[in-house]
Amino acid sequence: MTTISTTSGIPRDIHDPAIANRLKIFREKYIDKSQNQAAKKLKIAQSSLSYMEIRKLPVRFEFITRLVREYGLNQDWLSTGNGSPIDKNPSKTSLITDMNAISMELGALKDYIKRMEANQNYMLKLIDNLNKKIEKLEGK
């Protein structure tokens, strides 16, 4: 059974035994037969790769995006098993890469909004303090 974990409605993880199996097939054929060597090439812990392949750890969208970008993984094949494991047209954008880009942009915008709110609160406190000083001066 496929389940997708989300954060604020943005997909983050995939829990699917068929995808985990296809990930292993792709790794063995296009990255390295050795799980340890593949993990080094992918710059992740060997245990993380192992756990993704045996479905003890969900496959993260960010990880899939890296495989698409760096190794030409065909997302349709990963999702459905249809077609070739390698994308014949790797330059095209895809739903997962678009969602990842939107997610990253959304995160940056949220951080910007938090900074703006902090600055706004600081300015409101300054204005409030100045108003109190003015009231004191007017009272004298």
Q: Can you put this structure into words, describing what you see?
A:
The chain is mainly α and 140 residues long. Helices cover 66% and strands 9% of the residues. The chain is built from six helices and three strands. A three-stranded antiparallel beta sheet has the order 1-2-3. β1 and β2 form a beta hairpin. α2 crosses α3. The protein is elongated and about 85 Å long. It starts with a strand and ends with a helix. 14% of the residues are buried.
Q: DSSP helix count?
A: 6
Please compute the radius of gyration using only Cα atoms: 24 Å
Into which percent range does the helicity of residues fall?
55-70%
Order of helices and strands, N to C? EEHHHEHHH
Strand order within the widest sheet? 1-2-3
The average pLDDT value, as a whole number, equals 83
Uncertain segments of ≥5 residues (pLDDT<50)?
1-12
Residue fraction in strands:
5-15%
Find the structural class using helix and strand composition: mainly alpha
Write the topology of this structure:
Elements (H helix, E strand, L loop, with lengths): L2 E5 L2 E6 L1 H15 L3 H8 L3 H8 L5 E2 H11 L3 H6 L14 H45 L1
Antiparallel strand pairs: 1-2, 2-3
Helix pairs in contact: 2-3
Would you kindly provide a brief summary of this structure?
The chain has 140 residues and is mainly alpha-helical.
Keywords:
140 residues; mainly alpha; 3-stranded antiparallel beta sheet; disordered N terminus
